[in-house]
Design brief:
Layout (H helix, E strand, L loop, with lengths): L2 H16 L6 E9 L2 E8 L4 E9 L2 E8 L5 E6 L4 E12 L5 E10 L1 E5 L4 H12 L2 E5 L5 E6 L3 H13 L3
Antiparallel strand pairs: 1-2, 2-3, 3-4, 4-5, 5-8, 6-7, 6-9, 7-8, 9-10
Length: 167
């Protein structure tokens, strides 16, 4: 699967989770730093979002910022096929203490969780900016997916600026 297709699949999966019929979208890369990029997405229904993330063939980790929802983190894996449900999720940066992302929504190939707008959420974002790798952990503590954080600090800064410019 191409990198472009993986990004499109991630975007469509999140849009489908949020609405019965996914509107069409126009995504534009506004920033790239090492392994990470930031995209601005404009949907045909007028919604807008900024997305920072890292992609690999058939997998992606993205952070979604818009003016309608709290900041969300999404892990996409093309091998997954979840029935819609909720599940407790933990993310770990390097060998640090796992971040309890609370109850995430599992939907098709995605795990989607809100990043709280509190000290714990701020600490998680700071760890992403300083870290080398982030992992989605299974209940037994084993990594289900892992992603590079090379370029994350710069991308998170641009995500903040991009989201501040949304109407």
């Amino acid at each position: 699967m191409s990198r472009r297709f993986a990004i499109m699949a991630v975007s469509l999966a999140l849009a489908a989770a949020a609405a019965d019929a996914a509107p069409t979208q126009d995504a534009k890369v506004v920033f790239t730093a090492k392994d990470w990029s930031v995209r601005r997405i404009d949907w045909s229904d007028g919604a807008k979002a900024c997305v920072a993330g890292v992609t690999r063939p058939d997998a992606a980790l993205t952070l979604w910022a818009d003016n309608r929802h709290p900041l969300r983190v999404q892990v996409y894996d093309g091998r997954w096929n979840f029935r819609p449900r909720s599940h407790a999720v933990r993310l770990q940066v390097d060998a640090g203490r796992p971040f309890a992302a609370g109850t995430a929504q599992l939907f098709r190939q995605s795990v989607i969780a809100e990043v709280p707008a509190d000290a714990q959420g701020a600490a998680f974002l700071a760890a992403l900016g300083r870290g080398r790798e982030v992992r989605l952990l299974a209940d037994d503590g084993k990594a289900l997916q892992s992603f590079s954080l090379a370029g994350a600090q710069a991308a998170l800064g641009m995500l903040t600026r991009c989201a501040a410019g949304l109407p």
